Amino acid sequence: MEDTGLRDVDIIRVKSGYPAEEKDQVVVEMPLTIFLNGREFVTLLCSPFSLDCLAVGFLRSEGLLFDSGDLEEISLDREKGFVYVRTAGSVDLEEKLYGKRTVTSGCGKGTVFFNVLDSLQSKPVVSSLRLSGEVLLKLLKEMQNNSALFKATGGVHSAALADREQLLFCSEDIGRHNAVDKIVGRCILDNISMDDKILLTSGRLSSEIVIKGAKMGFPIIVSRSAPTTLSVEIAAKLGITLVGFARGKRLNIYANPNRINSDSL
Amino acid sequence: MEDTGLRDVDIIRVKSGYPAEEKDQVVVEMPLTIFLNGREFVTLLCSPFSLDCLAVGFLRSEGLLFDSGDLEEISLDREKGFVYVRTAGSVDLEEKLYGKRTVTSGCGKGTVFFNVLDSLQSKPVVSSLRLSGEVLLKLLKEMQNNSALFKATGGVHSAALADREQLLFCSEDIGRHNAVDKIVGRCILDNISMDDKILLTSGRLSSEIVIKGAKMGFPIIVSRSAPTTLSVEIAAKLGITLVGFARGKRLNIYANPNRINSDSL
């Protein structure tokens, strides 16, 4: 059974001048240490579910594996917060780790080891995916309605995978990068293509979220939050349709609007 | 003159079914590369102001310098996005960088190189600082009112330093860690003590924000957002007064409530 991701804590709640001892539900944050091919690799701070997806998605985002064929074994010691991943080929960790470092602005680690600027050399996304703004707003609303933890605590991010008709699955995490990595990891574990899907996120669209999406080939990235200048530039250059501030009956298209049919909104 | 941190971009705004070509103000995200003692150290993604404070605060948070006495020189090449820092002593970068890595959930890098769990061995904060919840709410409101960028874009975090009476200064950044590091850096550059001050942030109170605050000796950390189980535990253990969901006329005290006088709220 998955952890609910919530714990009761004793707090003093002060409301219009009156303090009261109460219980409050607080979102769980736990360390997850990834061992890659027998070697301690990294510790992530995360919410306590979909940990296998998180580990695989993180390693994919960092370029340490690419598809399920690269995965030989994955096992989780939930008690210790350890996940052991064995890949088919050997990975040159030294080179991966000790090269250029970019520390990003991302909630949920961003990308520690990859160079944001290099990724501008990524190939543009090509996809014939089209859908209406109306469907996009419906998908985002559905993701939000699915986010039990956010409703309970206000302290987590959501992400989701969708095709042009429906939400396929959602994730939640204290970090917006973790939430996206959980989606990526599940796609890899279940052999689901990403280059014909939509990535939805509750979090800000910073450059490294867009670069992460681009690496997976997502043609459309949507958020209820704001983009940045760098993320707009990157999305424009890489052929990604970037939609921000998608809330209620409105949305802003920041790059490559051709994939969104707005008449029907 | 400081950059406004905003750029106009062309967007398609879709509102209740009608698409329109419009201008939108988007928050600037830029790479800042820190050179430490002549060597390229790290690239941060950040908002384009208080870059010297950000560099110094980041290095302090990573334990690579401690006070202004450790700083020999700092110079900024704004055009290139480079900042050159020279420290008084030599820094064993290899050891700092290639030791245990924890990648945190933080917006704005968190802490790439330090081990979250080790920091539980930090010394508890000792401080006689006391203030009323009323003043705390006033300080947070003032911080929010000062945040021009947030008002314009909804895409940035704020942080601020306050004493028991007033706000001393604020910072803004696309990353919540960057915003806090800018406060820390300014304190170091201006020789301002932190162990008798209040750290305010608009962002979530994840463990590494609390650990960062603890390292600086802040006795009180306040946010309008949610804490996590790990951050509450750490604050309790380290003697830090942790206040979350401070909005309007209410706030929640998650640890060490003794410093907040709630009768007068």
Write a structural description.
The structure is a homodimer of 265-residue chains. Chain A has 265 residues and is of the alpha/beta class. Chain A folds into 2 domains: 30-118, Ubiquitin-like (UB roll) (Roll), CATH 3.10.20; 131-261, Cytidine Deaminase, domain 2, CATH 3.40.140. Chain A is 26% helix and 33% strand. The first copy, chain A, has helices at residues 51-61, 93-97, 133-146, 148-153, 176-189, 207-216, 229-238; strands at 6-15, 18-27, 30-36, 39-46, 71-77, 82-87, 102-103, 131-132, 157-162, 167-173, 198-201, 220-223, 241-247, 250-255, 260-261. In chain A, the strands form 4 sheets. A 6-stranded mixed beta sheet of chain A has the order 10-9-11-12-13-14, sandwiched between helices. In chain A, β13 (241-247) and β14 (250-255) form a beta hairpin. In chain A, α1 crosses α5 and α6 (207-216) packs parallel to α7 (229-238). Chain A is flat and about 55 Å long. Mean pLDDT of chain A is 87; it is low at 104-115.
Characteristic terms for this protein:
265 residues; 2 domains; homodimer; 6-stranded mixed β-sheet; Cytidine Deaminase, domain 2; 4-stranded mixed β-sheet; 7 helices; alpha/beta; Ubiquitin-like (UB roll)
